[in-house]
C-alpha cells in the first residue's frame, strides 16, 4: 500500500486516539469549544497528539460528496475567468480549487474543482453554459459525475 491511501474503517476497531481527535474536531466545528486546548482537555488528549492526527481524520461525509474537476482553455482577456467563476457560482457549485496557468499563445489553461453535493444541476448543463461564454475556447470534465 502506498502513502496517502484512503480506507474506510469501522470505528469499532480504531484506536481510541482517532475517535478522540474526531471528537475534538467536532467540538471545534460546532462551536461547543472555541479553544483547541480546552477541547483537548475535555477529550483527554494532548495537544501534540491532536495536531499529529487532525489533518488525517475526517468524517466520511467530508470526503464524499460529488467532486468534479473541469479543465478549460480561456482567451487571455481580462474578465473571462471572472465570468467563468460567476457561472459556477450561479449554479451553486462549492468551489474547492482554481488553478490557472500562465497564458501562452493568447490562451490560458484553467482547472477548477468543485463539490456538487447539495446542488441540483447536471454537470453537462453547467459545461454547456460555460461554453457559451465569449472567450471560453473549451471545457472538459476531467473527474467526477
Compute the gyration radius: what is it? 20 Å
Question: What string, H for helix and E for strand, traces the elements in order?
Answer: HHHHEHEEHE
CATH superfamily of the largest domain: ACT domain
Strand order of the main beta sheet, please? 2-3-1-4
Largest sheet: 4 strands, antiparallel
Architecture (CATH level 2) name of the largest domain: 2-Layer Sandwich
Polypeptide structure, described:
The protein has two domains: 11-61, no CATH class; 67-143, Alpha-Beta Plaits (2-Layer Sandwich), CATH 3.30.70. The protein is of the alpha+beta class. It has helices at residues 16-30, 36-43, 47-53, 60-63, 80-91, 123-131; strands at residues 67-75, 94-100, 107-115, 136-143. The relative contact order is 0.16. It has a four-stranded antiparallel β-sheet with strand order 2-3-1-4, covered by helices on one side. Strand 2 (94-100) and strand 3 (107-115) form a beta hairpin. The mean pLDDT is 87.
Could you outline the blueprint of secondary structure elements for this entry?
Elements (H helix, E strand, L loop, with lengths): L15 H15 L5 H8 L3 H7 L6 H4 L3 E9 L4 H12 L2 E7 L6 E9 L7 H9 L4 E8 L2
Antiparallel strand pairs: 1-3, 1-4, 2-3
Helix pairs in contact: 1-2
Properties at a glance:
single chain, 145 residues, alpha+beta, Alpha-Beta Plaits, 2 domains, four-stranded antiparallel beta sheet, 6 helices, 38% helix, elongated
How would you summarize this macromolecular structure in one to three sentences?
With about 140 residues, the chain is an alpha+beta fold. It has 6 helices and 4 strands, in the order ααααβαββαβ.
Amino acid at each position: 500500500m502506498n502513502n496517502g491511501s484512503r480506507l474506510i474503517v469501522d470505528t469499532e476497531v480504531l484506536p481510541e486516539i482517532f475517535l478522540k481527535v474526531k471528537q475534538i474536531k467536532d467540538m471545534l466545528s460546532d462551536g461547543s469549544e472555541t479553544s483547541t486546548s480546552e477541547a483537548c482537555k475535555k477529550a483527554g488528549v494532548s495537544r501534540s497528539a491532536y495536531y499529529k492526527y487532525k489533518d488525517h481524520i475526517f468524517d466520511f461525509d467530508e470526503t464524499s460528496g460529488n467532486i468534479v474537476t473541469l479543465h478549460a482553455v480561456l482567451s487571455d482577456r481580462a474578465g473571462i475567468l471572472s465570468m467563468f467563476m460567476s457561472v459556477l457560482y450561479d449554479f451553486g457549485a462549492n468551489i474547492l480549487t482554481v488553478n490557472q496557468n500562465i497564458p501562452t499563445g493568447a490562451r490560458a489553461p484553467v482547472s477548477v474543482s468543485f463539490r456538487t453535493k447539495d446542488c441540483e444541476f447536471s454537470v453537462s448543463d453547467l459545461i454547456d453554459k460555460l461554453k457559451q461564454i465569449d472567450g471560453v475556447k473549451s471545457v472538459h470534465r476531467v473527474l467526477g459525475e
